[in-house]
Each structure stands twice: as C-alpha cells, then as structure tokens.
Predict the structure.
Amino acid sequence: MAVSSAGFIRHDAGTAGRLPADSGPELMDDKDKLLLTLLRRDARRSIVALARDLNLSRSATQDRLAKLQASGVISGFTLAEGSAAGARQSAYLMVTFEAGYRCAQVVPKLKQIPCVGLIHSLTGPVDLILRVDADAIADIEGSRAAIAAVNGVASVSTSIVLERHLG
C-alpha cells in the first residue's frame, strides 16, 4: 500500500482475512471494526476520508491500517467473503422510525455502528433496510441492539441470511 501526497491510498491486490490463530478478534476495538466496515463498503477511500469517519487523525488511521495488515486481518484490499475458512454471517434489518424522525437524523448515527455494511431508504411501512455482516450471530445481535438503541428508531425486524445464491 502506498500513500500519495494527496492522501489517497493505492490498494494492492489480496484478500481480507481473519486474525491469525494466535490472536483473536477481541484484540480489535470498535474503531478497528468500523475501519474494516468502511473498507468493505469502499476499499478505495482515501486515508483522509477514513480518518474523518473514524474521528481520528490521518496518522492514527494509517497506524491502525498498518496494525491490521501486520496482524493478518487485512492482507490486501480486494475483499473475498464467504469462503469456507472465513465465512461471515449476514442479516438484513428492517428499521422503522419514531414519529417525526427522518433519515437525516438517524442514518449518520447508524453509519457509525461497526458491522453495518449497507443502508437503504425504502418506500412503504419500513423506513430503512440495513445489512449487517459479522463473524458470528452474537455480533449481529450486538449490532441489532446498537441499532435499536439509536434515537429515532422505533422498531427493528431482523432476517438472518441462510444461503447466498448470487452476490
């Protein structure tokens, strides 16, 4: 990985992996998990944009990237999910807002929750659909609880992905 003077990253080919057997996911804090989520959403984002979303300095964000690469959590920036060794669990969460709340008030808070990989506004009785990707169902439940606790969220309905047929 190289950083240009403009603060953009050149991403090398590789795969996103899990921590080596001698270390565990408990070594990652919420900022590390959010950084991984942001990279899953768009692995071509600049260090400056990642730092802004993490509320960290550019150098602190670069240090975290380097740590995640050194530990094997990131072995490159081409994401390959769903392999037998590192398959991730996914769920879709349907969110409805409390009366008077809008996307502009709720979505920025939801973007800060680790594991949230997709947020779309919908028509009809459901306001948003979110996709949560995690290593275990317990992590999905933790994200669901964090989503439900956001001011303006009235209800959350969860559907766990059983099998991926396309994508």
